[in-house]
């Protein structure tokens, strides 16, 4: 797990390699000659042969343009509104993905908008001289450059590791447009406006919108788009000066809804616009981890087999089974010169000749110092609501075994608790603690006739001020949860 986290950090630290489509590879005795050094890794030079994703595609589609903001509109609503007319459109584009979130399109559009209006003298301006039904028709050709923003790749959840097939794209761009606008009235159809970009100068337009793509397979995507086209020309709808007088500031912009296909070009399995950088990072960690596992970690070996390479092992003869620190030195927690493997009192310093345990000297009861019985028969403490003897108490009990066997007296093993819980519960718990210690001593060589067990419950406190227990720190309450020895 630590290796994977470290490799993941390395992969995140070099995100430019993800977007530039380079490949990171661990150096392996010159196996990859066409590389340059970058720290501890080698990075392939960017060439066409080193590309890992397809980034070119061709898109085409057809749809319906609707002019709803002009003097002559495509759809009519309400009483006496007139006839609704629907045109057609088609597009073809060459697409280049720059990164997994952005690309460019060179697009050609061709189509025809159709508009109609019911125009009566009652609704006409005062200077209008015609009466009847009007209609418009506009044939257009346009070339534009569009920016393609992959919103799904830009905002998708980074913890989503599963492949995805839907993507929302945003488009915006500018270009030039040429058109022929016709007007139909009671006299027939006539050409009102014709704009040719090369002959009449550049006629600029802009368009923007959104598309929803679905990935059919590695080669094909299907996409539905809705685009808003800004023509910047009040005669685009086919209206003449009379028609255009009906309303002020009308826009001849229109909406183009299309359905199309994208064909992804190239030899690779994945297209850059469908690429997930997080999947790339996980892929790289797996590759790097497998390569690291194949490399011999300790070139100089590990003579004492302690998991620390001899190159930086400060203790090359560590005994088998000993725990070591990062430099290969056997641990000695109490720093008494006896390593933990051989130390019988790991947390208490003691001389080597006593296996790391302290040596207790005999004292006379009247000397004013601690007596031998008090040092050899130390009490032990218990966890809350437990009668289990803790492993760090076994040295104390082993000392008690030796002392009791060497003495001529007999002893009572006394159990006690803190003040939490009921009287009956604590009485039973203290008796269990005393019984467990008594059983331990007997199993380790003490004659059963020298011992009996007694539980005092919560009425035998080492710190009487801890009633209730909330009045004292926890170390005092733990000292009350004890077993001690009393001579008969």
From TrEMBL:
It is a multi-pass membrane protein. Its main location: membrane. It comes from the Bacteria. Residues 1-20 form the signal peptide. SUPFAM superfamilies: OMPA-like, OmpA-like, TSP type-3 repeat. It holds the Pfam family OmpA. The keyword Transport applies. Residues 369-488 form the OmpA-like domain. It is found in: Cell outer membrane. Gene3D superfamilies: OmpA-like domain. Keywords: Cell outer membrane, Ion transport, Membrane, Porin, Signal, Transmembrane, Transmembrane beta strand, Transport. The keyword Transport applies. PANTHER family: LIPOPROTEIN YIAD-RELATED, STATOR ELEMENT OF FLAGELLAR MOTOR COMPLEX. This is OmpA family protein.
């Amino acid at each position: 797990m630590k290796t994977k986290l470290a490799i993941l950090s390395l992969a995140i630290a070099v995100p430019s390699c993800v977007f530039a489509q380079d490949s990171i590879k661990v150096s392996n005795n010159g196996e990859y000659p066409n590389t340059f050094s970058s720290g501890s890794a080698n990075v392939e030079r960017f060439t066409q042969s080193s590309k890992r994703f397809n980034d070119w595609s061709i898109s085409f589609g057809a749809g319906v343009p609707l002019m709803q903001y002009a003097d002559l509109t495509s759809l009519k609503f309400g009483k006496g509104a007139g006839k609704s007319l629907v045109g057609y459109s088609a597009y073809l584009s060459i697409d280049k993905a720059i990164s997994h979130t952005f690309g460019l399109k060179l697009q050609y559009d061709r189509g025809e908008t159709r508009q109609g209006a019911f125009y009566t003298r009652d609704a006409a301006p005062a200077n209008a001289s015609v009466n009847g039904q009007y209609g418009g028709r506009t044939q257009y050709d346009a070339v534009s450059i569009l920016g393609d923003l992959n919103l799904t790749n830009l905002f998708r959840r980074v913890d989503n590791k599963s492949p995805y097939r839907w993507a929302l794209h945003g488009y915006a761009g500018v270009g030039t447009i040429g058109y022929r606008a016709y007007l139909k009235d009671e006299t027939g159809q006539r050409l009102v406006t014709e704009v040719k970009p090369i002959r009449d100068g550049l006629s600029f337009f802009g368009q923007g919108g959104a598309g929803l793509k679905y990935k059919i397979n590695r080669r094909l995507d299907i996409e539905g788009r809705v685009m808003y086209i800004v023509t910047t020309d009040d005669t685009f709808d086919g209206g003449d000066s009379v028609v255009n007088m009906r309303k002020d500031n009308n826009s001849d912009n229109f909406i183009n809804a299309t359905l199309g296909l994208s064909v992804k070009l190239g030899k690779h399995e994945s297209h850059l616009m469908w690429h997930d950088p997080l999947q790339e990072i996980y892929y790289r960690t797996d590759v790097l981890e497998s390569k690291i596992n194949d490399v011999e970690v300790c070139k100089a070996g590990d003579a004492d087999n302690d998991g620390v390479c001899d190159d930086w092992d400060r203790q090359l003869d560590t005994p088998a089974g000993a725990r070591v620190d990062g430099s290969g030195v056997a641990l000695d927690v109490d720093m008494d010169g006896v390593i933990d493997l051989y130390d019988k009192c790991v947390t208490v310093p003691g001389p080597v000749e006593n296996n790391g345990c302290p040596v207790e000297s005999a004292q006379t009861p009247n000397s004013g110092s601690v007596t031998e019985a008090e040092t050899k028969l130390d009490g032990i403490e218990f966890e809350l609501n437990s009668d289990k003897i803790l492993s760090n108490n076994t040295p104390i009990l082993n000392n008690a075994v030796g002392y009791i066997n060497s003495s001529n007296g007999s002893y009572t093993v006394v159990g006690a608790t803190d003040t939490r819980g009921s009287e009956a519960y604590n009485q039973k718990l203290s008796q269990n603690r005393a019984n467990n210690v008594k059983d331990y001593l007997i199993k380790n060589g003490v004659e059963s006739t020298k011992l009996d067990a007694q539980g005092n419950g919560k009425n035998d406190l080492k710190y009487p001020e801890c009633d209730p227990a909330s009045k004292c720190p926890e170390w005092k309450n733990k000292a009350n949860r004890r077993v001690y020895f009393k001579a008969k």
